[in-house]
Amino acid sequence: MASDLPPSAIKRERPPGVSPISDIAPAKRQTDESHKVQPTPAKFLWATCQDMNESMRLNIKEVAVEQAEENCLKIQHVLESALGKAKKDAISTGSLAIERKMFKQWIEELNNLRDRHHKHEILVGVEGPTGAGKSSFLAALVGLSELFPSGQQGAATAVVGKASWNWDDKPGSEFRAKVTLCDKADIEQSIKNLLKDMKRLSKLKNTLPRDCDDPEEREDEITNTGNRINWELPRIKAVWGMKREELQVVADTCNSDQSYHKVVQWILKKNPQACRFLQDGVIEFNAAKRKELNRKIKPFLDSTAVNHGAGSPFSVWPLIQDVHMYVKSNFLRPGMTVVDLPGCGDATASRGEIAKKFAHRLDVRLVVSPIARATDEKQGQALMQSGFDEAQMKIRGKYDGRGFGVILSMMDQIDVSTYVEGSYELQNDPETSQKLEDLETLQQRKQNGHKKLRNTQAKLKLVERERKEAHENHRMAEESLLPESEDQSNANGENIEELKTKADNATAAYKRGSDMINTLKSNIEKVCEEMEGIEDWLHNKVTQTRNQYVKDRLQESHAIRQAALNRSDKGSPPLPIFPVSSKAYWRLRQKEPPIQSYTTISSTGLPAVREWLVEATLSKREKHLDDVLGAYQGLMAMMRFYSQEKGIDANFDISRSTVEDSLAQTHRDFSIKLGASLSKAALKIQELNPLEDVKRICKASSDEAVRVAAKWSRKYPADDHDTEMMRCNTYTAILSRNGSMYTPKGTGITYNWLEDLGGLLLRSICKEWDDQMNQRLMEIKAPIMEAFKKTWTEYVSQLKQDIRDNLPALEVSFNHFAATADDGLLPSDSNIQKMLDKLSEDASEVTDDVVELYGRELEPVFEAALNIKGNGSYKRRRDCVTNKIRKISVHIARPIVNKLSERLEARKALVPRDLHRIAQEAINRLKHELSFHLHNLLENYPASEELKKKKIELQKDIRVRVEEWELGWQPQGSKDEKIMGSNLKGPGDTQVIIEDDDSDSDKGEEVVDTPLEAIGDDMENLFRDDEMQDA
């Protein structure tokens, strides 16, 4: 900042013939119209492309960022070289000291900007039932096989796995991974809690029911404590290999906190390598090849036990917080980070909890479910139709067709004949019926052809034997011919002629038979080709029919829920649904024979998902690019001011401090005025209140609360048609947890009563919340920016007036600087957008505690139910809960809404502070750029002639690079129209067509030789046209 730089009033004459250069211009100089400071270049393409479509805008800005990074890197090398040389110089005062400080600040800002850009993440996560194919789908999406482990036995992904673009190009670091472990204290506390539960459970079981004041309470506690143990025990066993019996023995010896601490440390020491992992906190891996990295990190991602050093094999997943990979995939380069979450319904319930806690952090949330059971599978349905999650997404502005989608995996798995038999639609489709008839006819023709072929091959085999005999007889007859009487000679000649004719007929018959076999084979091949075409048609037809049926059912359900959320049938975007086949995709990528009907990459469904994700994240990526480009433009301006050429000498008896003092009051005044004008323009933010209609909200949520609570005793409360009752122990366990999340062992079903009620409240407010805190809030940006531009123009005009009144000699040069002041509007525009986005995000987070708030309000209800004992207590507990919620549902909603409202108002109250900060940052940026300009205009050359020459060369070197940078940002016609889609195109995403060499085979069918008598002696007529026609 200008205020950080020491003032300088040192003046020396510039040597003859040396043009003034930015940082070290001589103190005496004049500027006229023929030698004025270079004006700002024309507007850049990325700043003037608002009227283009989203994809083209994004593409232009992506290219502009790449150009900026490249040019800044060149300038950074120049500055670092200059700083390195400056260390060797003895003189480090005056303008040289200021210059070095400016260079360091510029490099620091560049490094921070580059780091911010590289760390930008758009989280695209997948969740779904265990074994749904999430990891395989993500690997295909990114185009890197086995990116995440796909387990063939049990759950593969045991922790949160992330993959981002790797910006590190150092040899040996092309592929990287960062494994973050849990806090050691948390692990120790978990073990301690487990030991306490085990000791308590042992004591409860050793106490007879008749010795207890409340036997039923004893049973409830046994159930709840056992459930907690079952939750935690698999984690301890996975890492430390201790069986329940061993842990029980040591738990029984504990009588104090000190004894528990000793046992915990003893357990930890049983696995020294696990302790080392926890002490390290973070483990990093580097590899030149992806498969090498996969091999290194696989033990940290999945649940298999492996050797980690010299000790026994163990699973490390309970110690892992997350695994973040950095790889080379064009799909990830624009900031995409894919997240692989553990499957819900996992046999180890705690792994499923990881997924749920992480899901709401995602920018795009994809639920993966096998298409064959997508409409029936309860875990997938719970994710797709969770009222709580839907309302949360709506509140966060992510339920708009771009923040949530469904992936129907394993699309290639379908039995055509079985599906057709069970499909009313296909059975009544004339074209399908005709194709089935044609296929049956062709199958009969193929069967007949093969039968005829076998018979013909058998006949030809006998004909070949007969042909050889005939030719041998004819040869032997000719060789045995002796001079005899004329009559005998004639007789022998006739015999030889007869043998020759027979041999010729056999040869001709053999040729006709061979031709017939070739024709039969050709006909069979044609029939097979026709059958293959019909089978492909049927496979496509069945697949598309099945896909459309599933999509229609999901869309119908989605539309009903959307209408309920929006309280309207209009304006609801369709649910993005994508049938995919990862298996078919990899078959094509690896140039293996394709799966039937999947002969192109596009037919696998993966390109459609990529295209949607690109479009769904356009807005967030463009906001980030605008922010980055505004910052790069500021860096460019500083270097332009430093390196620009100037005019002829003038007697400027002016120092930096004189100029800064002349402008200081205006800076202070407009810092306040700009913040005030922004706050005034943002007053409409304070008027936004999605919780204003408290009466409606409370009534809407309470009406549904009774109906929902009445189904809490069902095993599948979300399914209106399934009335199977929950086990008594399960109901009691949920009551003892105050209605919070509980997953009984072995069922894979997760219950959360508090979330059920919280979801009702959120559903009653989400429409207004989305309308006001997502839609209308963003509309307020326009008047804020209008106020900013108006006050900013006044600010710059006042600065010019200050120079005109106090330092008229600088007026021309300052006016040229002021012409660039509007460049500061873009960073401010981005900052205001980020402020509004942050406000929207923070506002939505005030609803995160709605479950906890319901827990506080309902604790007396659940406690009263638990106090009901004796025969029939299960039914009386259910009735108690239902009746109390019926009575208090309206009353408990009101304090919760009031609490949410207080939090929202508290967050909105911070807006003026945020806007004043943005205003101050804008003024600081201008002061910073002005500092570079003043240094160029007023500071002196170094006293040393050698340093003068070096500085002139340095400025020239930087000026050339700035000019190259500016030229790269200028509109270049079609040169810059590089489609973003091609950048995001995953490796191998070209249309692949592989010939399917599948031929029909009849191996195993017995070939029956035809007796010789069936062939007959009439070789001349064997294999004639009538037989061909029969074939």
From TrEMBL:
Region entry Disordered, spans: 1-38, 466-490, 976-1011
Entry coiled-coil feature ranges: none
Annotated DUF7605 domain residues: 710-887
Domain Dynamin N-terminal: 125-385
Pfam family for this entry, one: DUF7605
UniProt feature, compositional bias: Basic and acidic residues: 466-478
InterPro entries xref list: DUF7605, Dynamin_N, P-loop_NTPase
The protein's name: Nuclear GTPase SLIP-GC
